[in-house]
Automatic annotation (TrEMBL):
Keywords: Ligase. Pfam families: AMP-binding, AMP-binding_C. Residues 434-509 form the AMP-binding enzyme C-terminal domain. This is O-succinylbenzoic acid--CoA ligase. InterPro entries: AMP-bd_C, AMP-bd_C_sf, AMP-binding_CS, AMP-dep_synth/lig_dom, ANL_N_sf, ATP-dep_AMP-bd_enzyme. GO terms for molecular function: acid-thiol ligase activity. Belongs to the ATP-dependent AMP-binding enzyme family. Residues 13-384 form the AMP-dependent synthetase/ligase domain.
Amino acid sequence: MSTASAFVFDWVFEHARRSPDAPAVGTPSGWTSYRELAGAVRGLASRLEEGGVLPGAFVTLALPPGPAAVASATAIQALGACAVELNRQLDARTIEEVLAQTGARHAVVHLRDVEVWAQLARAHGFSRLFVVAPAAPSPRLQALLQGIDWTWVDEQTPGGGDSAWDAPVREAEAPALLVYTSGSTGAPRGVVQTHSNVHANTEAIGSYLGLTSADRALSILPLFYCFGRSILQTHLFAGGSFFFDHRFVYPKVVMEAVAEQRCSGFYGVPLTFELIRRHVDLRSIALDSLRYVAQAGGAMSPDTIRWAREVFAPAPLFVMYGQTEATARLSYLPPDRAADKAGSIGRGLDNVELRVVDATGRELAPRAVGELVARGPSITPGYFRAPAETAEILRDGWLWTGDLGWQDEEGFVFLVGRAKDMLKLAGHRVSAAELEHVLSEHPDVREAAVVGVPDAAGQEAAVAFVVAAGDASPDAGELRRFCRQRLPAFKVPREIRFVRELPRTASGKIAKAALREGLDDAILEGRVEAGSRAEGG
């Protein structure tokens, strides 16, 4: 049973009253019940308040996944403050930019990262640093934090404050989260997500997945990534349970955990399923508890989608689409339409309206390609302290997603690429995604990424980065011939480079900026040839 409140902390408190001993959050180390989680939230809120956190403040959060991370973010929101959840792998300079932008003077961090945060606390005049650690403070830790106002938080029992503390009435339109985008196309930006944004998206996702208190999800995705956080939120809303498992360097171990924990749902990005396909024999694992499997975070290859539908059956696969600027989810493809709508991201959620428009915002006829725009209660009010960038994506109440695509006569959306990922080849506008799709159809190619770079003549050239499938040794000339059989000559990549792996952002998306960086010297040396020739070996 879900709750009608717009606030995550109310969901936790309500389920703690209804089913106090029900499991809420689990890790390979064990489970935390709703009663324990609610106690941790109240206790942490009390300690944060004592440490000077006020309503409207921004509090940075950099913790490994687990009960302490969930309780900390929820406690921050219960105080009326905004949680700024960061990737623990961020460099100090990027963190400093976030601190300067938000004015955050409180942080909840893990013992393993305390040296970096001690320096940041001194440089930025922190009011209080909260250090989550598995054991009582050591003399070394105390010496390291000398001169800093700090509080120790027990990682196993993160409450420790006033367990009777209760949240006052809060404003649903206030910021709940500030989520920084991965920055694959530029500098990271803070996306504001209000309590009402989170509630609207959570309720809609839970509705189409049919989530109840009996559901248990396993996720390998980080909480600073909106997809990962949405999985947690939907299960807290329903009173279900959520199992964090970040041992995905061993995919088989994680899939065995799905079976051992009797999970009803498993979630991943395309790379998740590619790694499972390559390294795990799912026939050896009893996955009969699975009620569904869900994928988002980018386009998955048609071949992998077919594989996933086969190996996870009878559990259906939900292909989903969304953006941080939409809290998490905008659309999904109902599994019963997978066959006749293959390649589609589906239709909008019940509370989301989708359109395909031209550059002026005029809605286009079915099957005409334009930019996908969205409207609904989960759309962000904007980027934090970035009015110009906000005005670019929010126009007349519509979110301009930056994704190009078309709708069929039934409203199903098919994406063709990113507006900023279009190439101009021989005077023609070409989607990089189209070239990547063709290359990925070759049996010797596991995945491909295409970027556009200027050649020696000032024209744009398509350069493809290819990862071979298994033990295959594809030949560049053969791949170009394969492309020429399926594409006009001007679309065939000028150059094909083979790499062991494609660089990824923290959320698992291909980092094309990193691919382009390695091409600068090649362009200067003339190794990316001038002209529009698509032939060659």
